[in-house]
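Escalation from tier 1.

The customer reports that the assembly of two entities below gives different structure tokens on two consecutive runs. Tier 1 could not reproduce it. I'm attaching the input and our single run for tier 2 to review.
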Amino acid sequence: VEGTAERRADTLRAGFVQTVPRFGDLEGNLRRARELAERAPEFDVLVLPELFSTGYAFVDRREAEGLAEELTGPTCSWLRAVASERRGWVVGGFAERAGSRLFNSAALVGPAGEIHVYRKIHLFDREKDLFDAGDAPFAAIPIRTERGTVLVGLMICFDWFFPESARSLALDGAEVLLHPSNLVLDKCQGAMPTRCLENRVFAVTANRSGEDDRGPLRIAFTGRSQITAPDGAVLASAPAEGEATEVVELDLAAARDKHVTAGNDLLADRRPDMYRTAR
Amino acid sequence: VEGTAERRADTLRAGFVQTVPRFGDLEGNLRRARELAERAPEFDVLVLPELFSTGYAFVDRREAEGLAEELTGPTCSWLRAVASERRGWVVGGFAERAGSRLFNSAALVGPAGEIHVYRKIHLFDREKDLFDAGDAPFAAIPIRTERGTVLVGLMICFDWFFPESARSLALDGAEVLLHPSNLVLDKCQGAMPTRCLENRVFAVTANRSGEDDRGPLRIAFTGRSQITAPDGAVLASAPAEGEATEVVELDLAAARDKHVTAGNDLLADRRPDMYRTAR
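Tier 1 run:
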């Protein structure tokens, strides 16, 4: 920014909270998430799962609308309160009402009430019947921490499956991917090392566990929230079942140097003229 | 093609030969590769490693030029002979001389002498001092087999690291990636399931093992040639050391249906307007 010397942070204390929400119990879910967040040691950014306050298995769009909220609603207020109290950034997913539109969104809230919203771009399976797809391109977000500025990127759950998601964020400068999830497939945790490796970024995947049992609609989630490093190493991993809270200190130098050999910078060595981007 | 009914093959018998070449011993390397190829059961396409006839560790461009050849040279002639004799397609890597230019190339040769050449797009480390980078975009190649036509894609070794390589080939219709390699890092074999999963394609990675010991320049290779399926399953895997030959019958239906859920087609669900493709 002109006239200011933005100090870049060298490290970031980043963590996840893995929850087991009860469908529709907004108050109970936020209360329990608060207890879990309070267990976290000091952090610069803490990631909660996708739709962590409502649960996931809406039977139809009307039900999702009924549990949706605006940025002044209970979930974003909760994020603001935790961010302010813990003096760190907090990310979590919520059903976002915006006029007649409904998004599967994540809000990233800072200690001074700063707020950035990401609307899920790749909707999973029957989410297409419930939500509108995100309408703003992937973009890195600079966040100020006590230690300096860090560029983070937001993606939600199924976005991981498309290499363009993490790639877009990395090309825009993101050093750490914040990845609220409600994973039902068992492939993401094994693929995140590749996502991190190919972009030389960190990723914090906050997943839920347990299941939403809505009668005929019953969906189980895979837990195993994970923090992954630019060399593909798994720095933290939660169990498949139950709740968990973890915070890891990330050495951001590993995400800023895109070299994989002395001669290869993974972003500079891309050959866009050689690529197809459409069928 | 207008006026013709191109029958699409339902299956493809695809395999790899893992070699341990001796640097610079073109005649000996081709003779030994022939013995290994002869051990392969019937195949529609057989993949040999990158630079399998010369070895990898050229000390400088001049040495690479001395071992380079044109499409009439000994390596492509070898591929033609094996393809004709075994009545299948054969792929292998060679140093390609084209006027004053030098490429790290792979030739895909058919039983009737058809030939397609791919010039490596992403050069690894000191290959940049030896070769010119490939100048033609990734493109799928239709090959006719006894069972019908199959679309394959060629990429070489380090190309795997860039998700755009496999993505470009899949967007162009490739169902099976043919991937001659001389891998020195230990990450590719673990990442190929993600490459296959995100594009719903098969991949045949033919790697070499052993080392090129050129005095001060000494490079070891990781073997573990691998055939990977669209669901990320590893269908065949060679040992880290030594030679190997494997052929697997691939059920191409798995690569033609891009659905990962009833509601998600992984190529149709891409959102190009939401992606960044440059820094």
